[in-house]
Amino acid sequence: QVQLVESGGGLVQAGGSLRLSCAASGRAFSRYPMGWFRQAPGKEREFVAAISSSGISTYYADSVKGRFTISRDNAKNTVYLQMNILKPEDTAVYYCAGDPRSNYYSRGEFNYWGRGTQVTVSS
User: Fold this and answer.
1) Each residue of 22-43: pLDDT tens digit?
2) Any idea what the Cα angle at residue 84 is, between residues 79 and 85, rounded to 5°?
3) Are the C-beta atoms of 55 and 72 separated by less than 8 Å?
4) Residue 105 DSSP class
5) What does the alpha-carbon distance between residue 55 and residue 118 come to, in Å, rounded to a whole number?
6) How many whole angstroms separate alpha carbon 36 and alpha carbon 94?
7) Which of 38, 62, 67, 79 is the most buried (most CB within 10 A)?
8) pLDDT for res 1
9) What are φ and ψ of residue 109, in 5° steps?
10) Contacts of 50 (CB under 8 A, 6+ apart)
11) What CA–CA distance (Å, rounded) separates 87 from 18?
């Protein structure tokens, strides 16, 4: 069993930056690909980024490519999402996810989910 706890959300002006963290419990963390997803009010959850278990491979939604960076520190059981040049449309609850059931990470078919952290970008 893995528990995921996100932190680092908050209110930021457009053009600013935030760094989200996702701390995982359990010794199996380093075996799992991890992902970040977000859900804005009235919208469906959408894929943001994913990272392989080793951290070598990363994947991004087109909407965040070039602005967001996903990384992980397996020694600390933590995955990060560095968000730069934030836009109002990035406003959402951001969720960390682990242990995908398929290789199509953007589908959101993960076994473990955090409770989310709110990111609000003002214009």
Assistant:
1) 999 977 888 899 999 999 999 9
2) 155
3) yes
4) G
5) 25
6) 7
7) 79
8) 79
9) -90, 75
10) 33, 34, 35, 36, 58, 59, 70, 100, 105, 106
11) 12
